Amino acid sequence: MNVGVVVFPGSNCDRDMFHVLTDVFNLNAQYFWHEKGLPNNIDAVILPGGFSYGDRLRAGVIAAHSPIIKDVQKMAEKGIPILGVCNGFQILVESGLLPGVLLKNNSLNFMCKWTNLVVENNSTPFTSQFKLNQKIPIPIANGEGRYFVDETTLKKLKKHNQIVFKYDKVVNGSSDRIAGVCNEDGNVVGMMPHPERAVESEINPIDNKPSSLIFESLLSTMGVKH
Amino acid sequence: MATYTVHVTIENKPGISDPEGETILNDLVLKGSHKSVSKIKTAKMLKFTIKEKDKKTAGKKIQEICDELRIYNPMVSKVTIDVFD
């Protein structure tokens, strides 16, 4: 199974993601520079975290105009699993692949802490191995992580089961405590917290198993045994 | 063709919270006893320099650029465009 990790100028979680995909889950991961295209043999695409273009203008908006995004859009339409983490989520939102917007945290602080997610949708390629309402201890690290949607869009998200993860309590002022959403088809998922920082017991003092299920869900979706 | 300076002000739409503006108001201006101030909104301003045939065209072109490239996010922000000679 081939997983593409897209690298933008300013990505800084690409190597962590690559390490987890290859060393922890034995997947064939490849980096793709944002100015290149994505080959047809890619089975899943991950947009990692970081500070693409130094968050200039607004987090994710400049990277959303990168040439590779056209290929990501085509793959999204084909139903290929796509995951955006943190800045990757911001890029997916700014490129129109996911609804909503990520605003500055209510505290105005860069927040770097452990949070608890609650799984709201376990039918995406990244959540199929979870039980509904299962908790995931997982770290966040962002300044612009407050997910916002207007009331009309929020109703649509609920109607189409697009809320994938919520925080178990108010963390940053997100609409409806949302931490991650998917597109209507469910194959494009964006989340602010960092699963690649939580799947190994060496760096997860709480419980690394729930975060591992995000990647195990992908493996299961693609029919790969782990 | 003439050169124009165009100010693009990006600010939150009414109803979208602006915690930075609220902090400047509550924790700086009001604590500084300037009680006549009732609201502060933060905004980001971009100053474009553009060559166009007239003022109106310059403003229209900048509006197009802002919409096409998502210089502002229409879900939460609005832009005000001011063209100067």
Task: Explain what this protein looks like in three dimensions.
The complex is a heterodimer of chains A (226) and B (85). With 226 residues, chain A is of the alpha/beta class. Chain A contains 5 helices and 11 strands, in the order βαββαβαββββαβββα. Chain A has helices at 14-24, 68-78, 87-94, 151-159, 209-221, and strands at 2-7, 28-33, 44-47, 82-85, 101-103, 111-119, 135-142, 146-148, 163-167, 178-182, 188-191. Chain B is built from 2 helices and 3 strands; from the N terminus they run E-H-E-H-E. The model of chain B has no long low-confidence stretch (mean pLDDT 95). The interface between A and B is medium-sized, with 18 and 11 residues.
The major beta sheet of chain B can be summarized as:
3 strands, antiparallel
Q: Tell me the radius of gyration of chain A.
A: 16 Å
| CATH class category name of chain A | Alpha Beta
Number of H- or I-type helical stretches of chain B: 2
Task: Set out the fold topology.
The complex is a heterodimer of chains A (226) and B (85).
Chain A: E1 2-7, H1 14-24, E2 28-33, E3 44-47, H2 68-78, E4 82-85, H3 87-94, E5 101-103, E6 111-119, E7 135-142, E8 146-148, H4 151-159, E9 163-167, E10 178-182, E11 188-191, H5 209-221
Parallel strand pairs in A: 1-2, 1-3, 3-4, 4-11
Antiparallel strand pairs in A: 5-8, 6-7, 6-9, 9-10, 10-11
Chain B: E1 2-12, H1 19-29, E2 43-52, H2 55-68, E3 77-84
